[in-house]
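4.2 Preliminary Data

To establish feasibility before requesting continued support, the project team ran the inverse folding procedure on a target of 155 residues. The structure was first converted into the token representation described in Section 3, and no sequence information of any kind was made available to the design step. The complete token record follows.
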């Protein structure tokens, strides 16, 4: 298996280090959508998110939400059967727990996002139902391993 990594994706050393340490071949290309997929198949496309703050910005801003919907549509157009948002988080295990998320606080005392966790959870659940996407949570250090697992099991 060879993994394609999007060149527009910020370099995620923790992911490519995992690939290197485990002999996983990968190349960097400009992907049509998402951040990671197999070279030989578009059936699974993974879009990584550094945290819930990032996904809340993507889903709760009108412009970003529309961009995400276009990306999911593009993925379906090329044969994607499983579009996965892989979100780095040490405490949240699935969407049902998002309402209990504690929004991080900046040094100045303000919140990183004004989106209420219960609203974010409802938006994520709606995206799952309406577009069939998946939201998978894992620790940042395990993202490389999780990407490989998701892509290995779905040609």
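Position-by-position output of the design step:
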């Amino acid at each position: 298996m060879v993994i394609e990594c999007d060149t527009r994706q910020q370099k995620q050393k923790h992911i490519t280090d995992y690939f290197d340490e485990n002999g996983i071949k990968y190349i960097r290309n400009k992907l049509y959508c998402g951040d990671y997929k197999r070279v030989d198949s578009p059936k699974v496309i993974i879009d990584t998110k550094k945290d819930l703050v990032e996904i809340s910005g993507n889903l709760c801003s009108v412009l970003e939400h529309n961009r995400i919907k276009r990306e999911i549509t593009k993925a379906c157009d090329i044969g994607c059967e499983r579009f996965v948002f892989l979100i780095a988080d040490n405490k949240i295990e699935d969407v049902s727990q998002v309402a209990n998320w504690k929004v991080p606080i900046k040094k100045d005392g303000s919140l990183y996002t004004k989106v209420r966790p219960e609203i974010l959870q409802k938006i994520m659940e709606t995206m799952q139902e309406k577009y069939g996407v998946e939201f998978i949570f894992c620790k940042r250090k395990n993202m490389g391993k999780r990407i490989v697992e998701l892509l290995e099991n779905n040609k």
